[in-house]
Design goal:
The complex is a heterotrimer of chains A (355), B (417) and C (299).
Chain A (H helix, E strand, L loop, with lengths): L12 H4 L6 H21 L2 H26 L7 H19 L3 H20 L8 H20 L1 H4 L5 E3 L4 E2 L2 E2 L3 H24 L1 H11 L1 H6 L4 H27 L1 E3 L5 H14 L4 H29 L2 H26 L3 H15 L5
Antiparallel strand pairs in A: 1-4, 2-3
Chain B lengths: L1 H20 L9 E8 L6 H20 L7 E3 L2 E3 L4 H13 L2 E5 L3 H14 L3 E2 L17 E2 L5 H15 L8 E7 L2 H4 L2 H11 L2 E7 L7 H11 L3 E5 L4 H11 L7 E3 L6 H6 L10 E4 L8 H12 L11 H24 L7 H8 L3 E3 L8 E2 L12 E6 L2 E4 L8 H14 L1
Chain C lengths: L5 H32 L6 H18 L4 H24 L7 H23 L15 E3 L2 E3 L1 H23 L1 H11 L1 H6 L4 H27 L12 H8 L4 H26 L3 H16 L14
Antiparallel strand pairs in C: 1-2
Helix pairs in contact in C: 1-5, 1-6, 1-8, 1-9, 1-10, 2-3, 2-4, 2-8, 3-8, 5-6, 5-8, 6-8, 9-10, 9-11, 10-11
Classes of the chains: A mainly alpha (355), B alpha/beta (417), C mainly alpha (299).
């Protein structure tokens, strides 16, 4: 009843392939935009805005990994390293050359893309789990290089402090300001990804994922497109890394280690491979999960246990819940949250009729 | 699968909304909030699982004695697992709860929170870790090491080595084995500066994280380089592994000095016990052992409630450090409230309170701390304890060394930051 | 290049061999699972850690007896292996490889948190009934704990090699790994052999946990040795037991030589990443490793 498709006629191919073919979709997106872009910064407290900020950064990174893993089928455990490449590139540009954010963000992404291409070269020869392990090696090697090459890391500390981004001379210092800044890039990333997957390149990616040998036979240069996938995905990761550094005010490789790569893998898988909406869901879910479980355990636990015991238990229970949820999702709903959402939406397409 | 996943999703949404609604803390009257970021999991959990309970014990003790002028100390705690984004989230959460002073742990976390702390004017204590240059209170107004920074530790370590090697380091070989991350490298500028002054040979040996295997480095130090003295700046599991390795290859532990985070009972136990580690020297910024009045007070508090004192108290090194941190914070709060006439203090007032701490030694547990607006370190005091018999015995009294070199290195570090 | 010191190098090599055999012990669990069920187990390190915890906890509970602790650890891990296969792996049969990999990653998190909840956060010791002081063999200085570890490693590696080559159960497992459908058609109970494989991996993990726990002490950081598994099995071949030994030896020796000779050149830290560089080279040149089988893909 809500999601009505009858009565909608398209008269041109362009209209049929448009981003939001149904009027209801346009209204829904407009409503969301209004809610998140206009209302949220005004209504939410600084703390909740900071949570949303973390989610926005994760969304950009997750979209990148989804392009590589969900659409092209290449497993990568190196997302954290690409983020750190972007972060340090931008940090060095800011500190040495005082570049503004509209240069550092693309530059960070570009540098990460370059490294991504290098890491993707083995994909010519190896695939599947071997490629995953190669990307794991890349993660560790890049970490080592940043730690040891002082020209990159800015000294023994390997931390580069960067000032907040400035628009037309005004430095963005409020949480709401940073929120809108990050939101801009997140929206850009979402729209870019939606368009990418509908384009020729996106279709090539999907062909490689589904049947790469057949794709090669029909003329798709799979090595070239695999490198594109690595490059584009690493570009997103680099941008996410720069954004995180702007948000935290510091670029530090210890923020981008193996556990971050694994978090992004979890985001993409729990969210749903091969789905932009899935990446968004997954990113929000994995980012907020530790926080929500902490609240929940705090609430429930304080009824039974002393604060001291609780403090010891909560972080470990959180790990157990994180791992347990991953396994649960994989067993019960391997297509992730996006599929869950689609099921709900399909239900409402026909509501109140059942079939 | 729709029915199962649908039900799960609804349940999850309901739980999340319910929990989110009740998450924001309410500020009640007569409360002072101290935000505690702790590492209960992660590579440094060995510290957090003892240090944080100690802080809570001290706060409970103060509250049981009437609080600070009638105000209760409330110390919400959030685990960071030694990662930065949770630290930032914890900071924001505590800020929302009205914290006027913060506790954190970890060098990258300190770097990340630095700007916010300054902007929000919430003083944060970082004893024995963090930004060594933060000793300069004028450059870092809201960061308070309140204990020997890595620079001071490096200087004191070299001084101890000098005394152990007969009063002069000229021509001697010093090995600096360190955990290969920024915190591990932080003492290096001071040690290298002292190399030029004292004329010793220096070689560094990196131990990549997680540091569970360092036999090659130990072999090199003992057999090839043949160091006269070893300075060990290691974290997590690495100190205990190092003790085992040096013992295994026969290098005398009395010529090894562990910096403050490689110097506690868990390290000795993990290395195989006191018997294995005889002679090992440990640098401390709070006293080790049980013989301090404040510890007895806490034990008495537990006994009065009919409970046994917690097992964490046995890990005296980390426990006492928690006491140090909590005690200095409480003292600062007291100073702040005395200055503003008994009102709940603001962050800026607590900062001023911290800078008034003078000759505060908590019955010998602490060195004679003196925090001023210029010196947020309190003097850079350390004490060396050595493993003898079944425990740590003090080998030196409280000392600090090469303050001029340390201060110069601080100023140079500030230029880079 | 720092001067070549013969005695130092010999010590490094002997160290490398010992450590390499201990890595091989962990890799053996990984290879067993992969060989029999085609699953890449990212939680191998956590298995070893969990086993170590069981052993340490049992030792503490039963007055420090090493043999009871060892027996309980083995029994516990066998039970865990059976349980995991049933609960986690069986529902995922037929899913793409990334799903199973993520499941083992999730499992790793559960084990890490669960171990601390069950056994506490402090580091616990396992005391092997061997002396602490090194054994001198000519110029070599060998630690008894490592000797035990190396010995256990060799015994079990030989044992499993024989098992897969000659015994009925072993041959059946190889058949299952080769092609599940054909094996089922030949009357082999695939599910039972999956369970066996995981149980055997549990046994090996228990041994690894005891030995590594005795060497390093048991706490949840012990799981990090699991990361070393990847260079070892890539070098040796994901499904080759002999490859696990050879790969382990190579990684152990390369690590130590890198620490001894490369570190001074580049300022340290090469020890951990040298095996990974080697691994990438092997992946480019011969992805199936030294002893692995070449996979032929059909459209």
């Amino acid at each position: 009843m809500f999601h009505r498709e009858s009565g909608v006629f398209k008269t041109s191919y362009a209209a049929d392939m448009a981003l939001f073919p149904l009027p209801i979709a346009k209204w829904a997106v407009a409503a969301f935009a209004g809610l998140f872009i206009a209302a949220a910064p005004l209504l939410l407290s600084v703390y909740y805005l900071s949570l949303l900020n973390l989610c926005l950064i994760a969304i950009v990174g997750a979209l990148g990994l989804n392009i590589l893993l969900g659409y092209t089928g290449q497993i990568s455990i190196g997302q954290g390293a690409f983020m750190s490449v972007g972060a340090y590139t931008a940090a060095n540009l800011i500190v040495r050359l005082h570049m503004p954010f509209w240069i550092t963000i693309p530059a960070g992404g570009a540098m990460a893309a370059l490294i991504g291409i290098i890491v993707g070269i083995p994909s010519l020869r190896i695939k599947g789990i071997y490629l995953a392990i190669a990307t794991l090696a890349a993660q560790l090697i890049i970490e080592w290089m940043i730690n040891h090459v002082e020209w990159i890391s800015g000294g023994v500390q390997a931390s580069i402090e960067i000032p907040r981004p400035a628009i037309f001379g005004h430095s963005i210092t409020s949480e709401a300001g940073i929120y809108l800044f990050l939101m801009f890039f997140a929206v850009l990333a979402i729209v870019a990804t939606l368009n990418l997957v509908r384009s020729r390149i996106g279709r090539a990616f999907i062909a490689i994922r589904d049947q790469d040998i057949a794709a090669e036979i029909i003329g798709i240069n799979i090595f070239k497109y695999k490198l594109y996938a690595f490059a584009i995905s690493s570009f997103y990761a680099g941008v996410a890394g720069v954004l995180e550094s702007y948000y935290l005010g510091i670029a530090n490789y210890e923020q981008f280690q193996l556990d971050v790569s694994i978090d992004y893998l979890a985001m993409v898988i729990i969210g749903g491979l091969g789905s932009v909406l899935g990446s968004i869901f997954g990113a929000v879910f994995v980012t907020l999960l530790p926080i929500v479980t902490r609240w929940g355990l705090q609430l429930v636990g304080s009824l039974f246990l002393s604060q001291g015991n609780l403090n010891n238990m909560i972080p470990n229970l959180r790990l157990v819940i994180f791992g347990g949820l991953i396994i649960l999702f994989l067993i019960a709903e391997p297509d992730g949250l996006a599929r869950l959402w689609r099921n709900i939406r399909n239900y409402f397409r026909l509501w109140p009729f059942s079939y | 699968m729709t029915s199962i996943s649908g039900r799960v999703l609804t349940l999850a949404m309901g739980a999340t909304l319910g929990v989110a609604a009740s998450s924001s803390a309410f500020a009640e009257d007569k409360q002072i909030v101290d935000g505690v970021m702790c590492d209960r999991t992660g590579p440094t959990q060995i510290v957090g699982t003892v240090l944080c309970p100690a802080m809570h014990d001290y706060f409970n003790l103060i509250n049981s004695q009437g609080g600070i002028d009638g105000y209760k100390i409330v110390a919400p705690e959030i685990d960071m697992a030694y990662k930065v984004p949770p630290a930032v989230e914890a900071y924001e959460q505590f800020k929302q709860q009205g914290a006027v002073i913060m506790t954190t742990y970890g060098t990258p976390q300190t770097h990340a929170l630095n700007e916010r702390i300054e902007q929000d004017k919430i003083p944060t204590t970082t004893p024995g870790f963090g930004i060594a240059a933060a000793a300069d209170g004028e450059h870092y107004p809201y960061l308070f090491p309140i204990a020997a920074s890595y620079f001071s530790q490096g200087a004191a370590a070299v001084d101890f080595a000098k005394k152990q090697l007969g009063g002069s380091l000229k021509g001697k070989k010093i090995a600096y084995i360190y955990y290969d991350n920024p915190a591990g490298k932080e003492p290096l500028p001071v040690v290298e500066a002292l190399q030029k002054i004292e004329g010793f040979e220096l070689k560094t040996f990196a131990v990549p994280p997680p540091g569970v295997e360092l036999s090659a480095q130990a072999l090199d130090i003992a057999q090839r380089y043949r160091a006269d003295f070893v300075l060990a700046q290691l974290f997590g599991r690495a100190p205990s592994v190092a003790i085992k390795e040096f013992k295994r290859i026969g290098y005398p532990l009395s010529h090894v000095l562990g910096f403050v985070w490689g110097a506690a009972e868990p390290d000795i136990e993990a290395a195989g016990g006191w018997g294995v580690a005889q002679g090992y020297n440990a640098l401390e910024f709070a006293g080790a052992g049980d013989d301090y009045p404040v510890r007895h007070e806490i034990e008495a508090m537990y006994k009065k409630e009919g409970k046994t004192p917690p097992a964490e108290m046995k890990s005296t090194v980390y426990y006492n450090r928690g006491l140090l941190q909590a005690a200095v914070q409480v003292q600062a709060l007291r100073n702040a409230m005395k200055a503003n006439g008994g009102k709940p203090p603001t962050g800026a007032e607590v900062k001023a309170g911290l800078e008034q701490i003078k000759d505060f030694s908590l019955g010998g547990l602490l060195p004679p701390l003196q925090v001023t607006a210029a010196d947020h370190e309190g003097g850079g005091w350390v004490r060396v304890f050595t493993v003898k018999g079944n425990g740590f015995t003090p080998s030196t009294d409280w000392f600090h060394a090469y303050r001029d070199v340390v201060m110069k290195t601080v100023k140079e570090a500030e230029k880079v930051e | 290049m720092p001067e070549f010191d013969l005695q130092f190098t010999v010590l490094l090599l002997s160290n490398g061999v010992m450590i390499g055999l201990m890595y091989a012990l962990i890799a053996l669990g990984f290879v067993l699972i992969y060989k029999a069920t085609d699953v890449i187990n990212f939680a191998q390190g956590e298995f070893v850690m969990f086993a170590g915890f069981i052993a340490a906890g049992a030792a503490a509970a039963f007055g420090g007896s090493f043999w009871i602790a060892a027996a309980l650890a083995i029994a516990g891990m066998v039970a865990l292996g059976f349980a995991l296969e049933r609960v986690v792996l069986r529902p995922l049969i037929g899913q793409p490889v990334i799903a199973v990999v993520m499941a083992t990653i999730g499992l790793a998190a559960v084990l890490r948190g669960g171990a601390v909840l069950a056994f506490g956060a402090g580091t616990q010791a396992i005391n092997m009934p061997v002396s602490d002081s090194p054994v001198y063999l000519g110029p070599l200085m060998l630690s008894p704990v490592q000797l035990v570890g190396a010995g256990v490693s060799i015994v079990f590696l030989a044992g499993f090699s024989w098992f897969f080559l000659k015994s009925r159960v072993g041959i059946a497992m190889r058949a299952v790994a080769d092609s599940q459908q054909v094996a089922m058609a030949m009357g082999i109970n695939v599910r039972r052999y999956f369970a066996f494989a995981w149980a055997m991996a549990g046994v090996v993990s228990a041994l690894g946990g005891i030995v590594w726990g005795a060497m390093l002490g048991v706490d949840n950081q012990l799981a990090l040795v699991g990361l070393k598994v990847f260079p070892v099995v890539i070098l040796g071949g994901l499904d080759s037991i002999l490859g696990a030994v050879v790969g382990g030896l190579i990684v152990g020796i390369v690590e130590n030589l890198a620490a001894g000779y490369f570190d001074p050149l580049v300022g340290g830290g090469t020890k951990d990443f040298a095996p990974y560089v080697l691994m990438i080279i092997v992946l480019m040149v011969r992805p199936e490793g030294i002893f692995g089988r070449r996979r032929i893909e059909r459209v």
